[in-house]
Specification:
The protein has 8 helices and 18 strands. It is α/β, with parallel strands linked by helices. The chain binds NADP nicotinamide-adenine-dinucleotide phosphate. The site of NADP nicotinamide-adenine-dinucleotide phosphate has 27 residues, from helix 1, helix 3 and helix 4.
Amino acid sequence: MTGTTQDFIVNRADLSRTKWVSGPAPDDIALDKGQILAEIEKFAFTANNITYAVAGDMLNYWSFFPAEAGWGRIPVWGYATVVRSRSSEIAEGERLYGYFPMSSHLVMQPEKVTPGSFLDLYKQRRELHPVYNTYTRLKSDKASPPALDDLRPILNPLYTTSFLIDDWLADNEFFGATQAVLLSASSKTGFGLAFGLSQRRPQGPTVVGLTSPGNVEFVKSLGCYDTVLSYDKIATLDAGQPTLVVDFAGDGDVLAAVHRHFGDKLVESTQVGLSHWDAPRPPSGLPGAKPHLFFAPDQARKRMEEWGKDGFDAKLGESWRAFAAKAATWVSIEHGKGPDAISRVYAEMLAGRINPAAGNILSL
Ligand SMILES: NC(=O)c1ccc[n+]([C@@H]2O[C@H](COP(=O)([O-])OP(=O)(O)OC[C@H]3O[C@@H](n4cnc5c(N)ncnc54)[C@H](OP(=O)(O)O)[C@@H]3O)[C@@H](O)[C@H]2O)c1
């Protein structure tokens, strides 16, 4: 992978069609005053990145890093090093953490630079939510210890959502539920929430994890769910208790079975993910609470107002470090290097051939 820049692009109408395209050599890319060229070092890849592609048109994910007409570059969380700079504030050699495309390089336009971070206000990324266009300058970063370098892009963005759902549920007194059912319990965002709920013992609801038959033993081994069952065992759950469901799977048949089993005892139905991206969506008119989308930035904004930005960062940071210490023993890092390895991991993830105990770190 020398000479030219490289992009992994996905056909937006048929996510199984992918290709690598070459661009100019890094030295030939024109930089305007204030811009930098970052060389992408490594990035994480989970089902969440497939969801970015599935929801690319609906939720605007394709607009971050444009590609040729009809194709898109999937956003990923990872690390990059500045290899050329026309910025007076960001020097060559700086290492960054944040949101990148599945590419070898990215032209960025750092603005609102502080010792710890900057916003990338390059063209189409100017309007993005700061969650996505804030980059951490790692030389002064204290939030995540270097020992978690690989685990951080795999788990930290997902755990932020897990933390916010846990906090939002507690903030709403669990809507009166004494039992929480989590769908796609083996997903990293799912077990992040289960971890948060398990930390509330003896307060909070008991936590049931539903997963595919092949993932039951893995989910049991985590120790943060009270009960773990496969999707075909929904009918065995206690339907007499007020129950809430948090859905990371987006599988309409599974969600419908949960609603029909609990009926009016289903007091809250929160939709977070689409890990079963090719499954049918839920029918309308299901019994129990009406399913609705969880929007993490709303809860983040509420808590930043109440706790202050520093207070929010401190609570999230403390919770992340406790989770990461556990999760480091649950997830084993698998490194994939080169275009073929990246294409293969993408195809396997798309097809649902996933080992939930593995965390993928990819590099060109
Ligand atoms: N809204 C938000 O703010 C937000 C934030 C973070 C994550 N999410 C969403 O939460 C979901 C989980 O993301 P993640 O990155 O945590 O996942 P992950 O750890 O990569 O999840 C792997 C699990 O997802 C299920 N799965 C994945 N692909 C599948 C397929 N094609 N067919 C059937 N099952 C499949 C399997 O779980 P089971 O066998 O247990 O079903 C698998 O073990 C994603 O849809 C993601 O976008 C949303």
